[in-house]
Amino acid sequence: MQEFLVxxxxxxxxxxxxxxxxxxxxxxxxxxxxLAATGRLFRLWRPVGEKRSVGIWRAEDEARLRxxxxxxxxxxxxxxxVVTPLEPHPNDPGAGSR
Length: 98
Hints:
By secondary structure, this protein is of the alpha+beta class. The protein has a single domain, classed as Dimeric alpha+beta barrel (Alpha-Beta Plaits, 2-Layer Sandwich). It has helices at about 20-35, 60-70; strands at about 1-10, 40-45, 50-60, 80-85. The model has no long low-confidence stretch (mean pLDDT about 95).
């Protein structure tokens, strides 16, 4: 499975009712847990003071990452993602732990 650095920004349209946003956020939390349990979501961070996330995600290829992984997130219709494919670095100190 390939790893990707994914930067996600979410912009909820202003006309979406708060109840719908709350419902999707709760479902997003649950779905992220499922993706983590299956190894698709490896790590996730939020830069200090920002409303975006940066994470390491895994999929067979970028197309499947966008459709089968990110595309299953309940907030996905309101997200933009910058996806960067990653490859191992020969000096990666964590390479032996994978």
